[in-house]
């Protein structure tokens, strides 16, 4: 029955800064809105966000995911982008040798409060997270997030 199974979104930021938003749900015609939401929340052009509805390559088939379009998708996307930004802020701090809490989010980049000329965009952090920089102990490489939800 619809609404009894979970749904999921998975957001991956590639080392180039381009992104793929995978959905368990079938297309609902709002993919451009979802791309714009990711773009707005992460400070990138919407054209850099590819949305893949019913992404069987990511989620497979027959695993209990509800594929019916969902009104909860925007909230799940916001959760995933929030996870991306949190990890990106931590990694930007490491890269800039500045405590993460001393960075602010401004116009698509993490900026040091002490010197606003020092900043890192999501694309900068994605490259760093994929191996161009040292990661803190216990932190996995890459920049991606998944949110599983039910509505």
Structure described in brief:
This protein has helices at residues 31-42, 56-59, 73-96, 122-132; strands at residues 7-13, 19-23, 49-52, 103-106, 109-112, 119-121, 143-149. The protein is of the alpha+beta class and 151 residues long.
Integer tally of domains: 1
Span between termini: 12 Å
CATH architecture title:
2-Layer Sandwich
State the CATH class.
Alpha Beta
Spans of at least 5 consecutive residues whose pLDDT stays below 50 are: none
CATH topology: Aldehyde Oxidoreductase, domain 4
Order of helices and strands: EEHEHHEEEHE
How much helicity do the residues have?
25-40%
Main sheet: strands, sense, barrel:
4 strands, mixed
Residue-averaged pLDDT, rounded? Answer: 92
Provide the gyration radius in Å: 16 Å
> How does the helix and strand content classify structurally?
alpha+beta
What is the tally of helical segments? Answer: 4
Shape: elongated
Task: Provide the CATH superfamily.
Answer: Aldehyde oxidase/xanthine dehydrogenase, molybdopterin binding domain
Number of strands: 7
Q: In what order do the strands lie side by side in the largest sheet? A: 3-2-1-7
- Strand portion, in percent? 15-25%
Report what the structure shows:
The chain is α+β, with helices and mostly antiparallel strands and 151 residues long. The chain has a single domain (7-149), classed as Aldehyde oxidase/xanthine dehydrogenase, molybdopterin binding domain (Aldehyde Oxidoreductase, domain 4), CATH 3.30.365.10. Helix content is 34%, strand content 23%. The chain has four helices and seven strands, in the order E-E-H-E-H-H-E-E-E-H-E. The strands form two sheets. Strands 3-2-1-7 form a four-stranded mixed β-sheet. Helix 1 links the parallel strand 2 (19-23) and strand 3 (49-52). Helix 1 (31-42) runs parallel beside helix 3 (73-96) and helix 3 crosses helix 4. The radius of gyration is 16 Å and the shape is elongated. The model has no long low-confidence stretch (mean pLDDT 92).
């Amino acid at each position: 029955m619809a609404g009894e199974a979970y749904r999921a979104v998975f957001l991956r930021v590639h080392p180039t800064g381009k992104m793929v938003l995978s959905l368990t749900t079938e297309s609902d015609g709002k993919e451009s809105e979802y791309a714009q939401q990711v773009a707005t929340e992460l400070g990138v052009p919407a054209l850099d966000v590819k949305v893949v509805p019913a992404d069987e390559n990511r989620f497979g088939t027959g695993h209990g995911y509800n594929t019916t379009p969902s009104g909860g998708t925007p909230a799940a996307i916001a959760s995933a982008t929030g996870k991306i930004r949190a990890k990106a802020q931590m990694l930007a701090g490491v890269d800039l040798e500045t405590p993460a809490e001393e960075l602010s989010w401004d116009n698509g980049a993490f900026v040091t409060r002490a010197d606003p000329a020092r900043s890192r965009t999501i694309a900068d952090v994605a490259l760093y997270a994929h191996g161009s920089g040292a990661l803190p102990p216990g932190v996995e490489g890459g920049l991606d997030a998944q949110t599983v939800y039910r509505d």
